[in-house]
Each structure stands twice: as C-alpha cells, then as structure tokens.
Amino acid sequence: MSQITTPRELKAAFPYMFARPIDPWAFSFARGWFPIIVRACNAIDALVRDDKYQHRFHWVQTKEKFGTLRLYWHARGMKGARVDLVTPTDVRSAVPVPEGKGRDGLVATQIWRIVRAAEEESAHTCIVCGAAGILRRGEWFLTLCDEHAQKRRAKDLEIWFCSEHPDGGPS
Ligand SMILES: [Zn+2]
Known about the structure:
The protein has helices spanning 7-13, 34-48, 102-122, 146-153, and strands at residues 58-65, 68-74, 83-86, 91-94, 134-137, 141-144. The chain is of the alpha+beta class.
C-alpha cells in the first residue's frame, strides 16, 4: 500500500470507515497524530475486510479532547459508553470493553484494543509534529513536544489539516 499522508487519501483508502459522520465536523485530523490514525485504520481494516459488511465498522468521530486523541467508533458487537474524569493535573478515561458475543464480539474487542493503543500513543506524541510529547496544561490540555510547547506561548501552532474544512481540506 502506498503511503497515506493526507485525510483525503485516508478516506479514499477506507471509504467505509468514514461514510457515517455524526456531523460535517466529525472528523478532524491533527498533523502530529495523523500517522497514529493511519496505523489504526490499517490494523482495523486487516481485521474486518474479509467480512462482507466489514462488521459495519465506522468511525463516529475522530478528534482531540482533553489534549489527546479521541476515536469514537461503532461496529457490530460493540456496546458501551466512555467516561472521562478530569483532575487538576490530567484526564482519565474509562472505556469499557465491548460486551458483544461470538465472532462479532471478538472482533469488536480487538478493535477496542487497537483504538485504545492509538489513543494512549497520542498521550505521549506531539499533536503538531509527532515527536515525543507530554500532556501540558495551559488554557486547555494539549500534548506537545518541548519545541511546540514554546511556540504555544506565542500562539503559533499549526495543528490541523485545514481545520475549517469538514473534508480535511484541499491537501
Ligand atoms: Zn512538536
């Protein structure tokens, strides 16, 4: 597979994953985390592609929340809501393991692991550049490397693939 470097290429590679956004702004892609999302899509596709309906897997939302990557998804065999606990220094997120039964439940649990690993990776990956970063508290939480933590003070961060554009921009 050729290298996927833009949201447009990602959606073209896995159209079924992005076919059902909850709203026009459901999918946002931070530059530093984009490789994490691409890897997650590839891993999930390997799990579901042999199923006629791909286990009905699709992303509901991809976004940043409380400084880290949040991937909301749906698939057959998946049920459960997440809970966020915000403390003065960090955010803990509880996401129950899917409870579905049989083959669908097994696939959903594997997807759940891939998604959790991606979200956890984002917690130590700079949202701007993808270098090693830590969760930093400013006006809001953001995971940043040292360099971009400096630039944040100058409000000079280019985080998003064309954030205003619901399609991920013209890139
Ligand atoms: Zn950085």
